[in-house]
Design brief:
By secondary structure, this protein is of the alpha+beta class. The chain is 25% helix and 41% strand. It has 2 domains: 3-160, START domain (Alpha-D-Glucose-1,6-Bisphosphate, Chain A, domain 4, 2-Layer Sandwich); 163-324, Alpha-D-Glucose-1,6-Bisphosphate, Chain A, domain 4 (2-Layer Sandwich). An 8-stranded antiparallel sheet has the order 1-2-8-7-6-5-4-3. The chain has an 8-stranded antiparallel sheet with strand order 9-10-16-15-14-13-12-11. A hairpin with a 2-residue loop joins strand 15 and strand 16 (285-293).
């Protein structure tokens, strides 16, 4: 993972994060000076950000929101203090209300981002300075150390060209924690079509089949928050296995970018998971990212042991054929 250290200094009232990358500092600058790229990083998995404004000038302001899988929002505001391209910039980072105004009862911090060359590529150093020990402790208690680490570890994907990062590698699995895994797959097609393929029952019946020899028998889609859905599959004649299905509830929708829903195996007492699907398009291809939250490590390992990832790869290969057709 890119992040090598996250340290707090109660005496200096600082929180320092360091991360290393195999690309030049100009590439890091490009990410942190472009809100569309930055919002892929600024927020841990499950809480992606959306920048509403980004006045990238000294004295200018940027506003953003981070949205949880259930639609809960956390708003923030930056005020740019100084900008030194491509070496970095400094901002006042504040918690904000829905209008983008700082919340007086929440601590603000002075954050400096620095990008410097290393023999292996580049180093990102983020130093946040606080006005008091209480402010530093309050932010740490809110989970900023863990959240910042998970957020910045997403940069290894963002700094690479999508085709270089994912093309030809198939469906990739990363275990992020006892409860979270991240699955990524590059789909050769634009985001709008990939989104439609996930929300149109007729299209889903053509590709969401897992290994060869199975057919989808039920495909009831929920496309609004609070709606329920149901899917089911059965083996074709001569194919071993027993039919199964899933049901759940839609928790959040932001078409054509993100959908979050619970998933439960129909007819069982197995616990539900939360599946957070996001789509990002670059140069005509779409990076599909599925963040799955399990109730515990045992459930995670049980599900992964079923060969789920291999079945997903079979389906995604089929999906690309559907998009071309």
């Amino acid at each position: 993972m890119p992040v090598t250290s996250v340290e707090t200094d109660a005496e200096a009232l600082t929180l320092t994060l360091i991360a290393d990358f195999p690309v030049g500092p100009e590439r890091l600058w490009a990410v942190f000076s472009d809100p569309r790229q930055l919002e892929r990083v600024w927020g841990p998995p499950g809480w992606p950000s959306t920048f509403g404004s980004f006045d990238f000038t000294p004295g200018g302001r940027a506003t953003y929101r981070m949205t949880s899988p259930t639609g809960e929002r956390a708003n923030g505001r930056w005020e740019f203090v100084s900008i030194d391209p491509p070496r970095g910039y400094e901002v006042i980072d504040s918690f904000a209300d829905d209008d983008g105004e700082p919340i007086d009862t929440m601590p603000a911090m002075r954050m400096t981002l620095t990008f410097e060359a290393t023999p292996e590529g580049s180093r990102l150093t983020s130093v946040s300075r606080f006005a008091s020990t209480e402010a530093l402790e309050q932010v740490v208690a809110m989970g900023v150390v863990e959240g910042s680490t998970l957020a910045m570890n997403q940069l290894d994907i963002v700094v690479q060209d999508l085709r270089d990062y994912a093309q030809g590698k198939g469906t990739q699995l990363e275990v992020l924690s006892d409860q979270h895994v991240r699955i990524t797959r590059l789909i050769d097609g634009p985001r709008d079509l990939v989104w439609r393929a996930h929300t149109d029952p007729d299209l889903m019946r053509r590709w969401l089949l897992g290994p060869d020899g199975w057919r989808m028998t039920v495909c009831e889609i929920g496309d609004t928050v609070g709606a329920t859905y149901r899917t089911a599959w059965e083996p074709e004649e001569g194919t071993p296995g027993e039919g199964f299905g899933f049901d759940g509830e839609v928790l959040y929708v932001e078409a054509p970018r993100r959908v979050v829903q619970t998933e439960h195996m129909t007819g069982t007492d197995f616990p539900s998971t939360t599946n957070d699907l996001s789509l990002y398009e670059e140069d005509g291809v779409t990076l599909l990212t599925l963040l799955i939250e399990y109730p515990d490590a045992a459930t995670r390992d049980m599900v992964l042991a079923t060969g789920m990832v291999g079945g997903m790869e079979d389906s995604y290969r089929r999906l690309e054929g559907v998009l071309v057709g």
